[in-house]
Amino acid sequence: MGGKKEIEGNFHHIAFRDGALVLLDQRKLPREEVYLECRTEDEAAEAIKTMVVRGAPAIGIAAGYGMALAAARHAGSGAGAQREALEGAARVLGATRPTAVNLFWAIEKMMAHVDKSASRPEALAEELLRLAEAMHEEDAAVCRRIGDLGAALLPEGSSVLTHCNAGALATGGYGTAGGVIRSGFRDGRVREVFVDETRPFLQGARLTAWELSRDGIPVVLITDNMAAHCMRLGKIGAIVVGADRVAANGDVANKIGTYGLAVLAREHGVPFYVAAPTSTIDMEAKGGADIPIEERPEEEVRSFGGALVAPEDVRVFNPAFDVTPARFVDALVTERGLVRLADGESLGSILG
Ligand code: MRU
Known about the structure:
single chain; 4-stranded mixed β-sheet; 11 helices; binds 5-S-methyl-1-O-phosphono-5-thio-D-ribulose
C-alpha cells in the first residue's frame, strides 16, 4: 500500500508453544494482560466456554489447536485409542459455544484430515498441529483481504460505529469488522470509531476500545443505548460489524444488539455492513430461524464488572446473539468479494 503505514493488528492472543495452547485471557482485559496455558483438549474447551478466547474465527482456531492437543496426548496409546480421543475431543469442543459456526467448521476440518490420513499416531498428531497453525495463519490473511475490500466501501474521513469485538482478538489477527476499520484508517477512510460498550460482557468497552487504541485508531466509547441518538445527530457514517453465523439467505447472527443497530441504521440512512469470512457462512441454515442462539449465565446480566446491580433473585433472559434479516445488510464483505443479496437469493454462488 505505497507509503501508507500498515497496521499490524496482532496481539499474539493465540499461540502454540512448548506443547501448550497459550491464550491471552480476554476476560481480564484491559486491566491485566495475563496468558492462560491449555495442555489438554478439556482445558481448551473450558477456555472457549468461559470466553478466555472468543469471537467466531478465534473460537474455531482455538478448537483446532484443542484437537491437536488431543492427538498429541493420545499418540502413545495406539491408533484406535487416538481416534477415540479425537472423537471425544470433537464432542467436548463442539459443546462449548453453539452459535459460532467457525467452531464446527474447524472441528470438521480436523476430523476430515483424521479420516483421510494413513499416518501413524505420532505423525498424525504432528499433521493436526500443522493444520491448526495453517488455519490460524490463513484466518489472519483472510481478514486482511476482508479489511481491504470493506474499506473501499467507506468514503474518506468516515466516522464508523462497531459493536462487540470483531477485531484482531476475535480472529487469527487483524479482525473482520476490525480489519475493515484498520484498512480504512490506514487509507484515510476512517477518521474515528464509535464503539458500543456491548452489554453484558462488554466486548466493545473492554476489547475493541483496547485493541483499536493500541493501534492508534481514535475511539469514542458509547453505551449501547446511545447509538440511536448518535445516528440522529449525524455522527455515524457507516456501521460495520462481524458475524457468528450467516445463513444461506444472508440472515446474520451476531452479538446481541446487532439487529437493533441494523434497524436504526435503515431508519437513519446509515449503511450497515457485515464483515465475515466464508467459514462463517452456514449453507445448512436456510435462514436465521435455523441458527441456534446461545443463552449465557444469568449473572452476566444481574451484575456489572462483578458487582451485583439488580435484585439477586430477579429473572433474567440472556441471549448472547440476535439475528439481523438479510434485507437490512447493505453488503456482506467476505474474502471472496462483496455480496449484496436481493430477496430470495442465496449465498451459494460465493462459495462456488
Ligand atoms: O460472544 P462473543 O464475544 O464470542 O461474540 C463475538 C461476536 O459477536 C463477534 O461479532 C463475532 O464473533 C465476529 S468475530 C470476527
